[in-house]
Amino acid sequence: MAKDLTMNKKSLITVLLLVNFMAVADSMQGQPAPVFNLKDQNGQSHQLADYKGQWLVLYFYPKDGTSGCTVEANAFKDNYDKLKAMNTEVLGISLDDAESHRKFIAEHDLPFNLLVDSDKVMSRAYGVDGGAAFFSYAKRQTFIVNPEGVIVKHFEAVDPDTHVDEVLKALNTLQTENNDGSQDKAGHDGQVVIAEELEDALVYGDAWPHDETHEYNLNRVLASPERYENNNFVISGRITRVCQTMGCWMVLSDGDDFARVDFNQHSFFIPKDSQGQAQVFGHLKMIKDSAEKRAHLTAEGAGELAPERYEIIAYSVKVNK
Questions:
Q1: Residue 135: band (very low, low, confident or very high) from pLDDT cuts 50, 70, 90
Q2: 219, 52, 258: which is closest to 250 by C-alpha?
Q3: Is Oxidoreductase one of the keywords (predicted)?
């Protein structure tokens, strides 16, 4: 009798596993990516908003150290430089705890972070929670999230041996389509491109408006900001900070006054080590940021920013040599 009960229990477990592995969640492709707030192997929090403006690969996997998960993780590691060159970050997610993640990362020298989803909050949000009460895991599925936070590719059936090649191919296609068939001035891989080289300066973004003869110091502009909101002007100051993630924004200063300069939502980039006097062609805009967005900008090197502030939306930046 006991033997029969043991056999029945094993059979039940086998059936449950087969059902879970065979079940395929409804595709989330085309939907906004569910927000998340999880800690990684070192206790550092990660939120979806942290990755706004870049591509994000979220790959869920069952368990650290198992054969398929190791193959998949090493494939992402081997292609990580290619992914970073495509302005893409990678996050692995499983139900394992932080200690397990640290051991897995150390054993295979993984260059990306692994998120701890022990309560299955993120797995449920993305529809990949599997198993039963006595055997839970995250199903092996991957999501590509675009810079606007939309899931543009959902891999529901993943072969660890070939999956990363599929991800790279999909990213190449998606980024080409995102550029509407033409390269922007930054290139789809976030490269810095000089739009114009003058005798005493380098221009990034659009060609410099040489017919604009009036130049306004930043402190004058910020003293009467409403006058500079509706039209574009040449505004001058000194570069004191540049985004250390992509080079997609800078901080322009003039004495004690300063303003963050947004490069028209990643339309172009400047070298991360840019400094000295500069002029921008653009206009002021009132910005009201969440605490999460300000924390993201601070992490990129922006310093302390006020919740409500004027920023410059720039179409061209001229950096003095």
A1: confident
A2: 258
A3: yes
Tell me which residues are annotated as active site: 69
Are the C-beta atoms of 237 and 217 separated by less than 8 Å? yes
Tokens 């041996």 -> residue: 161
d(CA 240, CA 303): 10
Write down the pLDDT at residue 300: 72
Crossing angle of helices 67-78 and 163-178, rounded to 10°: 40
88-94 and 113-116 beta bridge pairing? parallel
- Residue 270: closest CA among 240, 251, 248: 248
- Find out if CATH 3.40.50.720 is the number for domain 2-178: no
Q: Is the per-residue pLDDT at 311 higher than 90?
A: yes
Is domain 194-320 in CATH 2.40.50.140, yes or no? Answer: yes
Q: What are the tokens at 196?
A: 């114009």
What CA–CA distance (Å, rounded) separates 237 from 252?
6
Domain span(s) for CATH 3.40.30.10 in the chain: 2-178
82's tokens: 């290619």
According to CATH, where is 2.40.50.140 located in the chain? 194-320
Of the candidates 26, 25, 45, 28, the residue with the CA atom closest to the CA atom of residue 37: 45
What is the DSSP code (8-state) at residue 79?
A: T
**Site of tokens 């292609």:** 79
Pairing outcome for strands 308-320 and 257-262: parallel
Q: Name the band, by pLDDT with cuts 50, 70 and 90, for residue 231.
A: confident
| Alpha-carbon dihedral angle through residues 101, 103, 104, 105, given to the nearest 10 degrees | 80
Give the tokens for residue 67: 């054969």
